[in-house]
Each structure stands twice: as structure tokens, then as C-alpha cells.
Amino acid sequence: IDEWYGTPFKTMAFKAFLNYSLLQAWFPKQTEAWNQPSWFLSALTTSNLAMPIVLRRTATLGKAGLRNVFKVLATVSVLQKLAYSNTSRFRTHNITATGSEYPLIWNMTRFHPFWSLLEMVMGVVAARDVMLDTAEDRARLEDPLAWFAAAHAPLLLRATHFDLNDGLVRSAIFVPLYTRFLMALHRDSRSQSPSLITRLLRSAPITGLGSLTFSVFLLHAPIGQLFYKKAVATRLWGAPLRQNSFPLYLVTVFLASFLVNECVIKSDTVQR
């Protein structure tokens, strides 16, 4: 694609280096070069390097300390999203403004490895919290469905004048509530009579679909370019495909994801 656009060889080589070394998340102009979703692998790889230290430190904390750490991390995350919103915009519409600086600030907000590490540590803290549950904690069950509904309720904001941008909603509302949902779900799964949503989420069809999510995440963008990116689709089909081809696109993504999951991710080499 870069060759079709007349991209200089040095630029293509630099993009190749960043993508194959998983360093693209550190470069806001390059985070979406080639396969856009692969920025996640870049940020995740960097965050994983810090996990041995994080896990050791987290293991020394009690429940009160863990909850204080979660609150501090959540506050820092929200403050960073407020800083972005004050610089760019608070609402969802036109989140990438005309000025070239705004997409870069947005990329730094959603792609940067530091913020990915922060959210991963929040997950580690929540997991450690449920590990330290006492018999009294396990007896005091919460309804996972209520937390699930609360976490997704902010979607209704899109229908109002309070359609805050994704960064704010995610850090201030969704992440804390969805974390509570996961904690409640874990506790409920260990009870004598798990709730309906717990039984549904651990059913074979849902876990089967869940196993495809990583492959879908990585493949949906490059396959989408074959269907809809003007430069690519015009070369292949004469023009980008119409919207009525979207079901075919979905089927293609899921079939490709299934093959990658079964033949690559589940292979002995990868599992080792």
C-alpha cells in the first residue's frame, strides 16, 4: 500500500522496523501504520515487561492497600483524559479535529504504553483483591448483571447532549464499573448457584466466540482495507465495495480469525 502511495523506501523501512519490533505505540504518528490494531500488541508488550515488578509489589498489599492503589490509578487516568479533553474536545463528535495536533494527542491518550500499563495494573490489583477474599466476602455476593448493566449504561449518553468522549467515559465510568462486574462475576462463579449471566458467559458458545476475539481484533483492519480502503479496493475490485457487502466482510473476518486461532494461536509452538 505504501508503494502504491509512492512512500519513500526509508519511510517504509522505518514503519517496518516499528511494526516488527512492536515499538509503534511509542510513536504517535506511526501507531496506526500498516495494521492499525497492532498498536495494542506494542503497548501490551511494553506493559508485560513491567509485570514481574508489579506482581511482586501487589502481592505485599492487603485489601485496603489494593483499593487505595486502584483509586489512585483511576484518578490519574481520569486526570489525563481531562487534560486531553481540555486540549481537544469533551464531546464525541469530530474527536479528531482539523488541526494535525489533535489526532496526535488522541493517539497519545489511547495508544501510549504508559496508560496501557496503568490499566493493566488496575486489573492486577482487582484480581489480587478477590484472591484475598475471606469467607465473609465470599458470602456477600453481588449481582454481576447489575454491574454489567451499569458499566454499559453510559452508551445511552450518545443519545443526549452529554455525549462525552470515549476517553473520559472509559476511564471515569466504564473501567471502574466493569472491574466491579468482573470481580462480582468471579465471586458468583464460585458460589453454589451462579446467576444466569455467569452461566451464560461460561457456556461453550460464548467461550468459543471469546477465543476468537484476539484474532478478530488483529485481522478486522487489514481485511477491511481489502474491502473498503480506496487505494487497495480500487486495485483489487475497481472500487471500494458497497455497504451491502458488510455481511460478507463479517463472515470473512470470522472465518480468517477462526483459522488463525486454530492453526496459529492454538499451535504447540505458540502455546509453549
Please describe the topology of this protein.
Layout: H1 9-21, H2 39-49, H3 51-58, H4 63-87, H5 101-111, H6 113-131, H7 135-139, H8 144-152, H9 166-189, H10 196-201, H11 204-210, H12 213-228, H13 230-237, H14 246-265, H15 268-271
Helix pairs in contact: 2-6, 3-6, 4-5, 4-6, 4-9, 6-9, 8-9, 12-13, 12-14
Description:
This protein has helices at 9-21, 39-49, 51-58, 63-87, 101-111, 113-131, 135-139, 144-152, 166-189, 196-201, 204-210, 213-228, 230-237, 246-265, 268-271. The chain contains 15 helices and no strands. It has 272 residues and is mainly α. Helix 2 crosses helix 6 (113-131). 17% of the residues are buried. Mean pLDDT is 84; it is low at 95-100. It is globular, with a radius of gyration of 21 Å.
Specify Rg, calculated over alpha carbons. 21 Å
Major sheet description: none
Helix content: 55-70%
Mean pLDDT: 84
Order of helices and strands: HHHHHHHHHHHHHHH
Q: Proportion of β residues?
A: under 5%
State the shape. Answer: globular
Count of DSSP-assigned helices: 15
Number of strands: 0
* Low-confidence runs of at least 5 consecutive residues: 95-100
What structural category arises from helix and sheet content? mainly alpha
Distance from N terminus to C terminus (CA atoms, Å) equals 34 Å
Q: What's this entry about, in short?
A:
The protein is mainly alpha-helical and 272 residues long.
State the main characteristics.
272 residues, mainly alpha, 15 helices, 0% strand
